[in-house]
Amino acid sequence: MAEANDQHNAGDTSGKAPLPVDGFQGPQEPVRVNHTVRNVIIAAVVVVLVVVLAFFGYRGFAGKKSAAAKGSESNPVKIGVVGVTSPEWPIFKEEAQKQGIYVKLVDFQDYTSENPALDSGDLDLNEFQHILYLADYNVKNHKDLQPIGGVAVYPLGIYSSKYKDVKDIPAGTTVPVPNDETNQARALGVLKSAGLIKLNHPWTAFTTPADIDTAASKVKVLPLKAEQVANSLKDPQVSAGVINNDYVKDAGLKASDAIYHDSAESKEARPYINIFVARKADADNPTYLKLVKIFHSKKVAAGIMKKSDNSASLADEYSAEMLQGFLRDVEKDAKAKD
Asked: How many Cβ atoms are within 10 Å of 172's Cβ, its own excluded?
């Protein structure tokens, strides 16, 4: 019986693998790889790589495009101004381009938006304000914008329809001044330097009529709205008035009609130097400093003088460091006032 079983197993044709003998493993079924799945995985990886490379390639291209040198045609220096049609600006742009610097002038309709635009990076520079205005902005907003070049001082004058010389103004008469904070302090400085009033304290850009030593002063000071000062000259009790530059022409006057004006070189005039302003990080930017130098050229200066009826005193002798020192002084006074 045992032999019959052995013969049967040896001759089995059912397709089953023979049983192992004495622990020996017979031929094994080869491992079959699913090539379709593998190909799909490889294709997916390739697609992902292509997308990633394309994305970073675009980012790199975009980065190169935005990294064009400041002042190039594709990345001009943006300067905020008030009055882009003033004679000096087309000349300035042309002169700058001749020296390889492209400028884009951004025109504003008021004086409140330019400094925030500069601080946020929407502008590279601005030119519309004097040192006092900048000091007031920095102190009130805890900012640190900096002047990098002077433009001009526009003298503030004393005008009269009755007298030709400030020395002829009678004692006890009335002299109106603009009542807004900025121009009022400056007007008092003009009257002080003209010998018409005396102050109880050293003059600052924040001096008010309360600081006048009335007993020791020659005239009485009357604060009025800036636009009303010129009309007040018709009053018999008014001997003269300090008229804001913005209203001189409106009053039918010329800057040359002033019987006295402050000196652009005086200490009292420093807070009123009009300036180019940059962010502190850009205060020594060579391209911006070169633009200031171009602005100081004779051709641009001619445009400034034309705009001001030849009354402007150019402020091209002050270095950026000097102007920044003036700013610190005014900021100190502003903080003391508060």
From this structure: 11
